[in-house]
């Protein structure tokens, strides 16, 4: 996929920058734009036509570099974290975690897993004026969110949790259109840039061995399946601190 992107003009070689003294300058964390990688993958017919199976990372310590991580479910079935390299950037995968790196138009690999989930957490990019003006990232209209294939992914008695802004229009949509006949509750959170740790919030509602899924995720959770076009964003190694030896 990387080589095809370079040939097609979607990607350009990353040239190492230097400061005035000739030293290397650390590239920003968004040097590998995951959402743009997902957009690029959609244009390759060969990828769209392939019936890709879940890719399980090997149990041994074999180096994993430049894997085609787009458009198929990746699973770390081991009991310890693994590191992968994507477009020169390193990401940590928690134990027993799975993910699909794609946008909303390429969710079929997730449906192909033939799994249903007991808990589904949805953190959609709600439409708002500031996002429209900034053009920094994509947003979805309420109707697009309503068309998400949640019913196909939900097990019987599935708990569906949806993060929503405090905009009255969105709150009414969730209560009256998205979930018109279900019980709901709310929790206020002032941290709008990153969600609280969902496993802590939901620990009383997740049964032992329950299957859990997060949609529009930007990080991975041990034991969870995660999907989104920035699903590895906060798994970048620069967001982690290595423990000292012996600790």
Automatic annotation (TrEMBL):
Pfam families: MT-A70. One of its GO terms (molecular function) is nucleic acid binding. One of its GO terms (biological process) is methylation. GO terms for cellular component: cytosol; nucleus. It comes from the Eukaryota. Belongs to the MT-A70-like family. This is Methyltransferase like 4.
């Amino acid at each position: 996929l990387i080589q095809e992107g370079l040939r097609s003009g979607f990607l350009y070689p990353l040239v190492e920058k230097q400061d005035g003294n000739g030293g290397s300058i650390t590239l920003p964390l968004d040097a590998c734009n995951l959402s743009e990688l997902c957009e690029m993958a959609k244009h390759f017919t060969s990828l769209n036509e392939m019936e890709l199976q879940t890719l399980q990372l090997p149990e041994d310590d074999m180096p994993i570099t430049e894997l085609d991580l787009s458009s198929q479910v990746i699973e770390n079935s081991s009991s310890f974290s693994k590191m992968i390299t994507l477009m020169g950037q390193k990401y940590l995968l928690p134990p027993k975690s799975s993910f699909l790196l794609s946008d909303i138009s390429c969710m079929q690999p997730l449906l192909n897993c033939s799994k249903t989930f007991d808990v589904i957490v949805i953190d959609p990019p709600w439409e708002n004026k500031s996002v429209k003006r900034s053009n920094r990232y994509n947003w979805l209209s309420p109707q697009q969110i309503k068309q998400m294939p949640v019913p196909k992914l939900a097990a019987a008695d599935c708990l569906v949790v949806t993060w929503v802004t405090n905009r009255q229009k969105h709150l009414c949509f969730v209560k009256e259109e998205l979930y018109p006949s279900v019980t709901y509750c709310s929790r206020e959170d002032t941290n709008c840039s990153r969600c609280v740790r969902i496993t802590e919030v939901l620990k009383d509602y997740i049964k032992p061995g329950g299957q859990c899924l997060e949609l529009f995720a930007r990080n991975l959770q041990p034991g969870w399946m995660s999907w989104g076009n920035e699903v590895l964003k906060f798994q970048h190694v620069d967001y982690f601190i290595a423990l000292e030896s012996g600790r």
